[in-house]
What does this fold into?
Amino acid sequence: MLSKNLKNKVDWFVINKIKEIRNELGISQVDIAVHLDVSSGFIGQVESPNFRTKYKTSHLNEIAKLFNCSPKDFWPEKPL
It folds into this structure.
């Protein structure tokens, strides 16, 4: 049986911010997967509420390189 809260509020904030920037830049899930050397299914699982899969801090750093931004751009300004 799946738990309703597989990811917490901070996880979702980071995931949604990355997805938002990814869409603004026209970068696909596959593009991120190739850059991170993971499967595109991994990115799909990260963005899905049905899996516990999350980005690691090293992933966030690599995604920031791809997006040409700072990893802190993915985090909320204030605690959630």
Notes: Helices lie at 9-25, 29-36, 40-47, 57-67. The first helix runs from residue 9 to 25.
